[in-house]
Amino acid sequence: MLPQPDAPPSRSGVARRATVRACHWATSPRATTRAAAGTGPPPPATTPPPLGDDPYSLSITAATRKRVGAPLAPRAARFDVRIADESDATTLLALQGEQAQAMLQPLTDLDLETIGYYRFAEATLDGAKGMISRTGYTGEDGFELYLPNAAAVDIWRALLSRGAAPIGLAARDMLRTEMGYALYGHEINDAVTPVEAGLMWITRLDKGDFIGRDAVAARKGEGKKKALVGLRLTGRGIPREHYPVVSDGRVVGEVTSGLFSPLAGAGVALAYVEPRLANEGELAVDIRGKPVAAERTKPPFVRSRVRR
User: Fold this and answer.
1) Is the distance from CB of 276 to CB of 214 less than 8 angstroms?
2) What value does the CA radius of gyration of the chain take, rounded to a whole number of Å?
3) For 135-184, how does the pLDDT look when each residue is reduced to its tens digit (9 = 90+)?
4) What ranges in the chain are assigned the alpha helix state H?
């Protein structure tokens, strides 16, 4: 994230998610399937080879790196493909904000205008080969940089010298919550399907078989047991994760992510509630024994600055 003149400081800074995100890169025959989870820049490191003629990439939460990667090996055995986890050799830097492109462009030979939203390209970054994607879980325009560890510190310092400012994970969590983005361990986990999480818009049951398809289809057929909603407090208070959501004096759900948004000027939250209360009925968040009224609000809670 980058400083933004005349913009509130709550959406400024640089996010380095070296211990938060993992990226699994899977490629076709004659190429290597690779995984990267930025873990900081311990030397030595090698420059990643080209992705190959027909690459496939997976970007995975670092906490689930082993569990998500495990099913790939037995399935890959049926194809002419090789899988290798390069997590410990790769760093991910997230550069976000309206000045991201201007600050990054001098460090790469790639014309950043050619990278569309949720698109990526291989590039040379300050002399090191890596990958740049126009992504970021913040609601801001920006890029994620996949780098060999040996190059990460120099590029980090180069960005700081151009005016970028580092931020911590709590700030990044504020930004993604304001956007209503689901996060593993909060809105999504092994017990939640895309049906409850409102993610069926990216889940196609008609595209053929895939891992988890039967479970998603079954849940869709039987109906969701809970519904994810956005809440904006109408009274004073800050909703926190695991705070109960109540209606008519009864607990009907739980906050999964919550905070006070300086831009929204109120406490905002994502929460699971009983399906019948997804669209109607009074709701409140129980904050240390006191119910604070909330109104349903479809995220984002603040204006997105993503460049599409």
Assistant:
1) no
2) 21
3) 999 999 999 999 999 999 999 999 999 999 999 889 999 999 999 999 99
4) 65-69, 72-76, 100-104, 149-161, 169-179, 194-197, 213-222
Q: Which tokens belong to 307?
A: 């460049």
Give a yes or no: residue 14 inside a domain. yes
**160 & 268 share domain:** no
pLDDT digits 0-9 by tens, 56-66: 767 777 888 88
Examine residue 238 and state whether it is found in any structural domain, yes or no. yes
Sorted by sequence, the CB contacts under 8 Å of residue 293 that are 6+ apart come out as 233, 234, 235, 282, 283, 284
What does 232-261 look like in DSSP terms, one character per residue? EESSS----TT-EEEETTEEEEEEEEEEEE
Q: Are residues 148 and 17 in the same domain?
A: yes
Mean pLDDT of the residues in the chain: 83
The model's pTM is 0.80
Range of the domain at 34: 9-167
Last residue of a domain, one of 105, 132, 167: 167
Q: What digits encode the pLDDT tens for the residues 257-285?
A: 999 999 999 999 999 999 999 999 999 99
